[in-house]
Amino acid sequence: MTPTGTTALATGVLAAGPTLADFGHDPLWIIVVKAVMLFAFLGLGVVFGVWFERKLISRMQHRYGPNRAGRFGLLQSVADAIKMGLKEDVFPRTVDKVLYLLAPVIMVVPAFLAFSIVPFGPVVNLFGVETPLQLVDLPVAVLFMLAMGAVSVYGVVLAGWSSRSPYALLGGLRSAAQVVSYEIAMGLSFVAIFLFAGTLSTSEIVKAQEQTWFAVLLIPSFLVYVVCMFGEAARIPFDLPEGEGELVGGFQTEYSSSLKFALIMMGEYLHTFTASGIAVTLFLGGWRAPFPISLWEGANQGWWPVLWFFIKFVLTFCFIVWVRASLPRVRYDQLMSLGWKVLIPVNLAWILLVAAVRNVVVNPENRTIGIGLGVVIVIAALAIWMRFDTVNQRRKEARKAQVDAEFAQLSEEPAAGGFPVPPLDLPHYHGVVSRPSQDHR
């Protein structure tokens, strides 16, 4: 290592990408520069990400979207940020002020920290120093990301609890129950990646996708993560902590449109960016060029990989916006049922199958045992699925029979099982409703 902080920089290392051994050797000022660059990327990403989402959804709905402030409405989010920063800060009288102020900070800071493990590119020359385009990497980097996502939930819970409002409290509790439902399935979706890559380091996971992306090689894990990604970002169809229809405004009901509310919105967008960055890093090859661009010898060297990462990142974000514009919010019990009854069992069966295949690949002498174990796992999974489908079908038939019975009762006695309102004096039996007279119109 030279005094400028240069590490292993052979041509092979540059082509293959950095590993854990290339971190921890940068001078302090380079670390500060990379931290500032990451902060600027996320800060500007939040400002223009809001504009981009509003524009994209408006085009899907045949509207113009923001088009007043600046050319193409580019300054609309800047104007909104300035407005929220300068508005009067209102405190409800009954709130716990310390936790009320601390909750938005707890939501924002872990989101920034979680993005610090995302690699943007290989080793590059940054102001004369050869350094990886990643702020930090750890032997347990993916677990660090999961921990930061779990910590941010405390901010949501504290925001609801400190507001001393029943609706806000229900939104915070929903977030706590929601994270239990999807976080386990999301963590299990990474296990297959760990088995194939042999590491929890994000830079080395990107290196392991040099030949094939894990989104192709481990497509069940990728699909499970895509579902859990919306729960992690608290976006539609899983934005249950913010159910406006039943919770007024969710956990942020008592937060005025001031700087605190701006921090809450920033935290949610940062978690969306983190979910997109983790999807690109763990499943979509990270900063590596897609085929056929990867056939070019210099595609994965220098600053070009930053462009490939940014394109994948934007496309993933566009997918999240598209889902928001297309799907409705699911019920609370539907999310819990999906997480515990579908995602977790499917993940466990898939992990066993991946472990059996991996054992056969690494230890060819265990081929017979591995193949037999794989067949047993597949048969057991199919049997469980058929059993589950049969039980679910019976439950649907029983529910349908119950609904039909209630409907038949209503047709005979319209007031039975209805809302506790006085019966109307109109002849509405058998679907016949009298027309009001001209005097009562």
TrEMBL record:
Pfam families: NADHdh. It is an enzyme of class 7 (translocase). GO terms for molecular function: NADH dehydrogenase activity; oxidoreductase activity, acting on NAD(P)H, quinone or similar compound as acceptor; quinone binding. It is found in: Cell membrane; Membrane. PROSITE patterns: COMPLEX1_ND1_1, COMPLEX1_ND1_2. GO terms for cellular component: plasma membrane. Keywords: Cell membrane, Membrane, NAD, Quinone, Translocase, Transmembrane, Transmembrane helix, Ubiquinone. This is NADH-quinone oxidoreductase subunit H. The chain crosses the membrane at residues 31-52, 98-118, 138-159, 180-200, 212-231, 269-290, 302-323, 335-357, 369-388. GO terms for biological process: aerobic respiration. It catalyses: a quinone + NADH + 5 H(+)(in) = a quinol + NAD(+) + 4 H(+)(out). The gene is nuoH. It is a multi-pass membrane protein. Belongs to the complex I subunit 1 family. NDH-1 is composed of 14 different subunits. Subunits NuoA, H, J, K, L, M, N constitute the membrane sector of the complex. NDH-1 shuttles electrons from NADH, via FMN and iron-sulfur (Fe-S) centers, to quinones in the respiratory chain. The immediate electron acceptor for the enzyme in this species is believed to be ubiquinone. Couples the redox reaction to proton translocation (for every two electrons transferred, four hydrogen ions are translocated across the cytoplasmic membrane), and thus conserves the redox energy in a proton gradient. This subunit may bind ubiquinone. Its EC number is 7.1.1.-.
